[in-house]
Amino acid sequence: MRVLETKRELQAWSDAERRAGRRVALVPTMGALHRGHAALVGIARARAERVVVSIFVNPTQFNDRRDFEGYPRTVETDLAACRAAGVDVVFAPNAAEMYPEGAATWVDVHGLSEPLCGANRPGHFRGVTTVVTKLFLAARPDVAVFGEKDWQQLAVIRRMTTDLGFGIEIVGGETVRESDGLALSSRNVRLGPQARKQALCIVESLERAERMVADGEADAERILEAVRATLARAGQARIDYAELRDPASLETVSGRIEGPVLLAIALQFEPDPDGRGSAVRLIDNRVLGRRPRADA
Amino acid sequence: MRVLETKRELQAWSDAERRAGRRVALVPTMGALHRGHAALVGIARARAERVVVSIFVNPTQFNDRRDFEGYPRTVETDLAACRAAGVDVVFAPNAAEMYPEGAATWVDVHGLSEPLCGANRPGHFRGVTTVVTKLFLAARPDVAVFGEKDWQQLAVIRRMTTDLGFGIEIVGGETVRESDGLALSSRNVRLGPQARKQALCIVESLERAERMVADGEADAERILEAVRATLARAGQARIDYAELRDPASLETVSGRIEGPVLLAIALQFEPDPDGRGSAVRLIDNRVLGRRPRADA
Predict the structure, then answer these.
(1) Which end is more exposed in chain A, N or C (fewer Cβ atoms within 10 Å of the end residue's Cβ)?
(2) Are A230 and A194 within 8 A, CB to CB?
(3) Please, are residues B256 and B228 in contact by the beta-carbon 8 Å criterion?
(4) Which of chain B's residues have a Cβ under 8 Å away from the Cβ of A167?
């Protein structure tokens, strides 16, 4: 496994691979790798002969400085995990490599990036789309894999990839969960023990909504009321949003729901009353009323 | 010479060329080709084995609908000119190919795109940087050539190329002029006969400023006064701007000038009093106090 730190080296490597007729897949990450990332690497491996994992804690997508500073950084463990997963290249640039002196160029996706996390985290998606553009141009992949936990991010990146014409296939990887259902996230380790327990309300609310739809409930407001009631059990958390949206356009769904609908949730947790843990924002989602995947 | 209309075809062609070890150069144009474009093709030809000319009148970079609608479109002549110049591929997409349905992604360069034409033409540079990003991703060139008449555009594109990490060499081509000194522009044909004569005030003011600097004048305000006096002779024209700027950063230069300084001018012409010609905006520039080019 090679560890590259400059865009130029990565471009040269990728060009040589593709000249040799090998497909290249990219899995962009901010490190602190967990089994969710490993699953994305597995998807990448199945679609390309070469897999690049980028590890870069991108400062411009953090709207909250404490979140950026507290974001887990576990480089050595990450490299070992990549090696074990059969990754070919880890791209680990520093901030100056991704944001050259005087950098002033931004990539924006209007519309899709505005609701949900876009409304709660000003500038977040601009940071994401700008850095992903740079990663795409550095790795020049045939395929790029992103987790479905960040559903809106995936939708925004699909839109950007089509609009700018990258010619890269974007693949979503199903969310991987702890045995108790909590979606894997690099931020989970920062929850205090009590918040960690309360965080289960998220997956409980997703499952409750799924059961309601399976049982024939089609009223958006009744579903959201039940979701909010379930989330409210986490006394430590503030609901950033709990919304029903079209899975593709992210437009609000209200009234009677028809066809698959995205339930997207973001909760902001505070440290435990005894001071353990940090302020942590968690997101999760589920497409309600979707037929089981053929490959599931 | 091949004429391609889709990004996918152009990408496939470019990939095959580069796999075969041939360098690809791109000359982005809006058609209505003149000797200035031919000179850019010559520069491209000297730097790459394959030359792509794109012809696309990009709607998003026109802030003025009449300017967009009136922009000269001379496709057949353009294709003949490209053939004569030894161009390998003309990329002539339609608007839907460059702006897919629902397109919502924009590339912005802050700072450099804000003064001069940026202040006079809201949204212009966003349109330019967005379409050039798409053209870069479609043609995947090693080199791209832009005219120095659009000096600010060249600076903005250099910044964008560095910031996003395209790995493309950006080359500027010296402005080509009519025998009387008027900078070649696709818009020149739209000037009425009287406006065409008055337009010479632009190159006269550039030359007057150059002579002042050569004679030892170093006061920015005195140079600009002389420039404005020369421009004022064109009674039909409104000065959009006449400014001294740092050639690289485009920051305003005032007081005593030291080293090379960009004199950038934009004039807005009206139709001739007898109704001939159209409203036309012309720009031109000169770097004052620059040593003669080694290759000039």
Answers:
(1) C
(2) no
(3) no
(4) 7-8, 11, 137
CATH topology of domain A188-287: Pantoate--beta-alanine Ligase; Chain: A,domain 2 (3.30.1300)
What are the pLDDT digits (tens) for B169-213?
A: 999 999 999 999 999 999 999 999 999 999 999 999 999 999 999
What pLDDT score was predicted for residue B296? Answer: 41
- Mutation test of the interface with chain A: which of B159, B164, B249, choosing the one with the most A Cβ atoms within 10 A? B164
Contact A164 B108 (CB under 8 A): no
Residue in the block written with tokens 């060139």: B141
Q: Check CB contact of A14 with chain B, cutoff 8 Å.
A: no
Return the active site residues of A. Answer: 37
pLDDT at B292: 64
| ipTM value greater than 0.90 | yes
Name A228's Cβ contacts closer than 8 Å, sequence gap at least 6.
A205, A239, A242
Concatenated DSSP letters of A88-108 = SEEE---HHHHS-TT--EEEE
* B5 at A interface, C-beta within 8 A: no
Tell me which of A255-259, B144-148, B264-268 is least confident.
A255-259
Question: The domain at A2-173 falls in which architecture?
Answer: 3-Layer(aba) Sandwich (3.40)
Q: Give CA–CA dist B278/B96, Å, rounded.
A: 29
Please check whether residue B97 is in contact with residue B59, taking contact to mean a CB–CB distance below 8 angstroms: no
pLDDT-derived band at A293 (thresholds 50, 70, 90) equals low
Calpha distance A51→A22 (Å, rounded) = 10
Stretch (H or E) spanning A66: helix A65-70
**Cβ-defined contact of A105 to B129 (cutoff 8 Å):** yes
pTM of the model: 0.96
Q: Class of the B188-288 domain? A: alpha beta
Terminal alpha carbon distance of chain B: 31
The whole-angstrom separation of Cα B5 and Cα A89 is 36
Q: CB of A26 within 8 Å of any CB in chain B?
A: no
